[in-house]
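User: Run a structure prediction on this.
Assistant: Running it now.
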Amino acid sequence: MSRWRDVKQGNAKEESTKVEDTDCLTSAPIGNRIKAFIVDMFMIMMPIMYVTTYLIMEGKEDFQGSEEARWLTALTYGLIVVLFWIIKGQTPGYKAYSITLVDNETKNKISIPKAILRYLIFIFSATTIILAILPFFRKDKKTIQDILTKTTVISEKK
């Protein structure tokens, strides 16, 4: 560590204590990811909710009273999102904002177990405020599901 006087006079030597990964993936902006999530909720979740509420159940009162119906819609939404991640690497919302989900090691689409685990962690993190706002406090802007599954949501190259 250099002394302040050396730093001030420009005589300090550069000390590198940690190795930087030059091939590190940069996360897409948080705003784009939030907007993509909202698009996915309207394009995927809302039709599922409508079909479940009005075609399968007897109406909104039956849907609200049924814990199974709410879990069924969440699992159906999860299945569709997981399939999008595996097949295309993007959901409709990701496509709208030119972002893609990639595996950190392969820099390609994620595997089935990673996609399922990522969705399950997302469900858990959505129920806790601390985990939901985690990317706002991290320098790399990664969510807890990105950290635990070693994935990154990146902006597409144009």
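DSSP finds eight helices and two strands in the chain.
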